[in-house]
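Posting here for the record, re: adenosine monophosphate.
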Amino acid sequence: MGQTPKVVETVAALREETARYRAEGSKLAIVPTMGALHEGHIALVKQAKALARRVVVSIFVNPTQFAPNEDFSRYPRTLERDLALLSEVDADLVYLPSAAEMYPEGFATRIALSGPAEGLESDFRPHFFSGVAIVVAKLFLQSEADFALFGEKDYQQLKVVTRMARDLDLKIEVVPLPTVREPDGLALSSRNRYLTPEERAVAPVISRALNAAAAAIRAGTQPQAAVEEARQTIAAAGLNVDYVEARHAETLAPPEGLGEPIRLLAAAWLGKTRLIDNMPA
Ligand code: AMP
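Prediction output follows.
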């Protein structure tokens, strides 16, 4: 087990550390998180360590990506445990800014998004990607990292962030990692801890339904018909479905023809918990 990573809380302190890393000739990777870390986050940190000598993990429950009626105030915060987990995988630095540090009095800048940000999550959480984009852009600029690791678990977010970094010429490589799952297929998520034991038993229906739809599409079923079947399976298990959709795997535009890469994406409520998942077809 490694040392407990150093914790910094301000942009100035972060820059002091990253300047030292650059002076020693090290590459730097950043893993942006909202904390309540699980094996999915840890896989990102391990991959970050494989790409760069120095790794900074940011933990920031970003208020601008939550709507007033969402779970910002009850989002799990488990800092001590997070630091213990991060020491085991040799994270060098934890960046723990306050909301006031990120959004000083009078903060007035927005990033307007289109393309991969359209539809899916945006239809149900219209505030979400503008909040993600501003905080991720700030983290990239504050850290000046060479690499940023993102999970495919949040597939639309991954595509939005990748496109934003390219469009704004941010000097960073966005590196995707596959979704880490429980043995029964449920995608790991900090929000899974909201589930009651009964809900937890039902939750894998989303990944099972997406898997079945992906297999059907590969066997020749029309994507539209396959996702409709998945939607019915998920709804029949008692979930309240926001969407189950097939999209172009890169642009996230609705699929147009034969032979293009397809990604299946779903979001559904299980009681008071909103779960998302996605899979290649
Ligand atoms: P979050 O803390 O939920 O904002 O997630 C931080 C990062 O971890 C994002 O890039 C997520 O996509 C990624 N992540 C979350 N859950 C998983 C998972 N089950 N497998 C892989 N990456 C994940």
